[in-house]
């Protein structure tokens, strides 16, 4: 907490103007960083100093800053979110860096994620995948009693594991094919595991996979990079389950 | 100004049912002819937009985030209350109602709170049907936990991510309607003004946060679901983009603002460390189920927590409130933590923290059970603080978290501007002076899934709504206001950053309008804030342009509104010469230091009317009538 523990880091940050196709890396140094501050708070500090100098701050997205909203997401030293596993960028702390270290910061890159400005990108493609079936069609007011269908605890727990996805897109950014299979597989899994999801299972698998392809996401080739960077530890087993659901749906629709 | 809460007649238990039975309805074939504008996609806005789409209305929905799934409801951890009595422990609708109205220190509306308790049952049914993966017991049935302010187990939860799972349920339903074409989604839009035509709310003006364009949208009604105003304190548990701008603009256009001084400072947050911080992180209140709160008995005891023997620890909540113990409501837990720290017994090098200790629970239940219940929260704490809560007690301290005050609404959730409906945290209606845990999710979803789909139909069916277009003068005026403000902000080019001024505002607010308030401090605040506002308008430095993504510009606009709202909060707190719930006035306390209400003078909802930028706002009163409960001194002993 004392000032003598404060550190300096050198940043190599991606900057791209709004509306421009090409960006570039720009070097900045930030000093006086408390090791207790988060990575994004370090970027706040950089931006404060840029504003003071009359320069334009580096734009980046963030909101809850506690790892649940999925808004933030940077590639830090080549790794989506953070070199530390199972956290979102906002949960990374400066105590994980050495004084004087150089850090490269880039946006999530994938064809379906259009760059907007600096580190800010458009992930609307993920919403469009959900719109094709990432739900159970239950109109408000039509439900039976909440305890009417018992659900085995193991299934409910597995469904929760899959449902923990925060929709950040790190899986896409880290995949050499820019596949959204972990994201889509997690949603399909959640509802495949729960009895409430069964009536629409076939339609859901077909439509969501079709939309994923339409958006320009690549195929899964079992690299496993997605699971490694996922801030919520979503298992690649969910991709296997998505495939089963998809094949079942294809076979049944013939 | 006259305003009527429009509470239906009849006995409390039958009000909602009989109200629904007598509503005017919109013919199913006519619903698609109505255009509804929903602002915000949290639990209230997301569920409202989805449900209205399901009914067949034409809905446009707006959010500041890049996706509707990211609204700050997502961060709610602990759970959602429902009076299901699945645990056979004596719960029912009346008890949830009573706990909620008592928890709010008898400063809420009976009829609204009762309706909320009734709807809690439907919400749970709805969310399970949507596939929300709630925690279950081995028999496959739903599990419950207990929460502050209640002696029954009625809180349903999805690990420590209940808000996330409920929001994703609402978001799924919303995206289903987007796919069906009933709902059109507009992300990265910030509502900056309201268009009033013929005395009714008929549209909104937004800034497109990517292109900077000012956009107008016309409709038949506006639903404001934009959350609370905790970031007026700068550091809070809210998201960094959470703001009060839309609500504040509606206030300035004639909607009354109620009970702005009722703010909740949540007891279980990770303590503040230094000036670098951009937000504070909440640790779910559910931790108080198994964690024991204590500080050393001795002042200035610098030993490590585990080195302090049992008889030298003061479990102050258990000592002072034996029947509720660590599960007292939030306002009481927070105030007591502040007190022991003021006494010099706080821990952490800052002296502003208390311990939350799981040692006994781990001994009694085993590490695995505790990990199952709170695993993700423990991981989060370890990551943030670098300390392992399985081995050493957590350190916690209160932080601004939720605001009970908000725009005044009647029983139909309509503000004093016809057609402007306000849902969720943005309204004032259901929690009185203090909100109990696991009730915010309940209220957001009750408003969105069940109240507004009924109430909006009655408004639309019973109101003359001639067609309007965005060429109307009201839109031009609003666009002009937004453009002028943006230009002004960008042209100041002073020497202070937006953040520096926000930190200053936060300090004043936390110090004088925080966990305890007094006359002198509040008067001082009412003088100080206008000066800070002046400094802002003369000396802020907003870089960049208004023609593209510019987060500093967004933040500056929001801060300019907080700089006005903060003053209203202080005025409201000064006016209310009593202590109730989250509003604690040092001058008004019992001998034991508990909140002392003055029911004779203050059993009312304050409703402030904007009279012009240079004028003092005028306060109106909605007297609260208690037909069924008798306000009593709130005791948790």
Provide structural commentary.
The complex is a heterodimer of chains A (254) and B (637). With 254 residues, chain A is of the alpha+beta class. Chain A folds into two domains: 108 residues, Beta-grasp domain (Ubiquitin-like (UB roll)), CATH 3.10.20.30; 118 residues, Alpha-helical ferredoxin (Fumarate Reductase Iron-sulfur Protein, Chain B, domain 2). Chain A is 34% helix and 15% strand. Chain A contains eight helices and seven strands; from the N terminus they run E-E-H-E-E-E-E-E-H-H-H-H-H-H-H. In chain A, strand 6 and strand 7 form a beta hairpin. The radius of gyration of chain A is 21 Å and the shape is elongated. Chain A starts with 6 loop residues before the first strand and ends with a helix. The model of chain A has no long low-confidence stretch (mean pLDDT 96). With 637 residues, chain B is an alpha+beta fold. Chain B has a domain of 136 residues: Alpha-Beta Complex (Flavocytochrome C3, Chain A, domain 1), CATH 3.90.700. Chain B is built from 16 helices and 19 strands. In chain B, strands 5-2-1-9-17 form a five-stranded parallel β-sheet. In chain B, strands 11-15-14-12-13 form a five-stranded antiparallel β-sheet. Chain B has a four-stranded antiparallel β-sheet with strand order 16-10-18-19. In chain B, strand 6 and strand 7 form a beta hairpin. In chain B, helix 2 runs parallel beside helix 5, helix 3 packs across helix 4 and helix 9 packs antiparallel against helix 10. Classes of the chains: A alpha+beta (254), B alpha+beta (637). At the A-B interface, helix 1, helix 2 and helix 3 of A face helix 2, helix 4, helix 5, helix 10 and helix 11 of B.
Question: Can you give me a brief rundown of this structure?
Answer:
Chain A is of the alpha+beta class and 254 residues long.
